[in-house]
Amino acid sequence: MKAITAFLRRKNIIFSGKRYFIDGMSAMAQGLFCTLLVGTILNTIGQQFHIGFLTATVVTVGTGEGAVSYTIGSLASAMVGPAMAVAIGAALQAPPLVLYSLIGVGFAANSMGGAGGALAVFFVAIIAAEAGKLVSKETKIDILVTPIVTTLCGIGVAALIAAPIGAAASAVGRFVMWATELQPFFMGILVSVVVGMALTLPISSAAICAALGLTGLAGGAAVAGCCAQMVGFAVMSFRENRWGGLAAQGIGTSMLQMGNIVRNPRIWIPPTLAAAVTGPVATCLFRLEMNGAPVSSGMGTCGFVGQLGVYTGWVNDVLSGAKSAITAGDWAALVLISFILPALLTWLFAIPLRKQGWIKEGDLKLEL
Questions:
Q1: Measured distance CA(346)–CA(283) in Å, rounded
Q2: Overall pTM surpassing 0.85 (yes/no)
């Protein structure tokens, strides 16, 4: 047993929740962002502002009726599987030959996983990366052995589990979206609070939303919860962190407060209560839907990606005829849910907690 433990340590294989579900999922979200989300944004900008080089076909794959044309944005989006797999491999500190071999593995797992491909890539990439690390530099023909083992293991595992995992993730996502349509008030609270808290925790709310394919009303509630955490913490801690903290948390991440939350969990109460309010307001009052890329549902105000995702969904709905036009009411709802209500509600909820001494001066201070 000691020999096995020593071998695994030498190969840098660490079986831990932090490495897989925190580091791995966070990296996966970055891979998603750099391909699918950036591609969607570029396509939207090109369509809305009639920018020729963003709407023009840059490459066509195939011939005849089966030909597929790609713009710059759609090419970026098409690489989402490889990007997620390589990002996960990097988070697991895979050596170069393993990392490069994950490109094909990611493409296969994402394709086989269907609508739930992101979650399939997550599990398949971890297995393939660790298998590749086991044999890496163990033979004199490492240039052949490591890529072959990584590729065969990854695509073989994908053939076995990608479709079931993808189907399960899609089913869970569909259930959450169906339940939100059926019970927008209670599910609005639940989705908003849970996804918002996931954004502040050192896990990836964006990856969770992408894996579940969370869109529609449920996606709108997720956006509301993420905004409540980010804008809420930014405003609540303004007296300690001033403008730098406002920007770092408001358009960066509320995860910066995680250390302070560990020291005093009560500081988490105001933004979480704000999420519990803005979630059902989004679902019941404004019927705010996220019909852009699912990953945007878990981004909140980070780089205003959540708002861009909602806008992209509006554009798609207008083009498909599902929506007649983007109205002033749509914009008002988005601004209220994303910025005004989170700021106001969190500030109000924090007042009695400060008076009771549950939140004290310096509890929200960041080392910026």
A1: 19
A2: no
